[in-house]
Amino acid sequence: MANQDKIFAAPIEKMGDFTFDENVAEVFPDMIQRSVPGYSNIISAIGMLAKRFAAPDSHIYDLGCSLGAATLSMRRHIPHDSCKIIAVDNSQAMVERCRLHVNAYRGAADVEVREADIRDVEITNASMVVLNFTLQFLSPDDRQALLTRIYQGLKPGGILILSEKYRFEDDTANELLIDLHHDFKRANGYSELEISQKRSALENVMRPDSITTHQARLNAIGFSSVAMWFQCFNFGSMFAIK
């Protein structure tokens, strides 16, 4: 059973920015399930998409892999043993646990887990790239450049999966979806203090874009097909095919 997320359960006198440190890594499975609506559906579908898009003798990238949920979902579904999954995260605590998880489960595809900044990773010979709730933690100035490099490193017909929290341009809709997300967290046992403190901790490090911003950026880069395939409240996932 996953360790329960109690990171923001007690009052924090001086609130710092949210970081993916040892404390977060310890409770991450519980945190993500109780905080991100539809997370399990997204992970399952990433595996289904890998079965369809992973090409023999190609690379699959999981950029911002955390504990490796998307990596393992893809590994279980990829039928080719000539594929290589490259899972990357800049958190040492996450990478160490991801390696343990990868080593515990067998699959057709080979997996390499790297501790690195995803902005420094060369994307080559890729049939599939996953950014699962990762882009939102990069500086807005770095997003276009990363997505462009992903596009350039994708094989023709390759797919990018981009899961994010969204900001909505209509203020009424945006506030309603934020409130519904908070209701989701309350229903999963988070207190008002936990919700408030985590929101403050994330304020400076997670800056979501709107759906139209994502779509316009991907279209401008050159992807031939861009679509939203999943949404629950202000969270969702898109695909972009080269």
Question: How does this structure look, described?
Answer:
Its EC number is 2.1.3.-. One of its GO terms (biological process) is tRNA wobble uridine modification. Belongs to the class I-like SAM-binding methyltransferase superfamily. Cx-SAM synthase family. The protein is of the alpha/beta class. It is about 45% helix and about 20% strand. It contains eight helices and seven strands. The protein has helices at about 20-35, 40-55, 70-75, 90-105, 140-155, 170-185, 190-200, 210-220, and strands at about 60-65, 85-90, 110-115, 125-130, 155-165, 225-230, 235-240. It has a seven-stranded mixed beta sheet with strand order 3-2-1-4-5-7-6, sandwiched between helices. α2 (about 40-55) runs parallel beside α3 (about 70-75). About 35% of the residues are buried.
Summarize the helices and strands and which ones pair or pack.
Blueprint: H1 22-35, H2 39-53, E1 59-63, H3 69-77, E2 84-89, H4 92-104, E3 110-115, E4 126-132, H5 140-153, E5 154-165, H6 171-187, H7 192-202, H8 211-221, E6 225-232, E7 235-241
Parallel strand pairs: 1-2, 1-4, 2-3, 4-5
Antiparallel strand pairs: 5-7, 6-7
In short:
The chain is an alpha/beta fold and 242 residues long.
The stretches of 5 or more residues where confidence is low (pLDDT under 50) are none
Radius of gyration: 18 Å
Number of strands: 7
Report the sheet with the most strands, covering strand number, pairing sense and barrel closure: 7 strands, mixed
Shape: globular
> Helix amount, in percent?
40-55%
Structural class: alpha/beta
The helix/strand order is: HHEHEHEEHEHHHEE
Strand order of the largest sheet: 3-2-1-4-5-7-6
Mean pLDDT, as a whole number? 94
Strand content: 15-25%
* Intertermini distance: 40 Å
* Tally of DSSP helical segments: 8
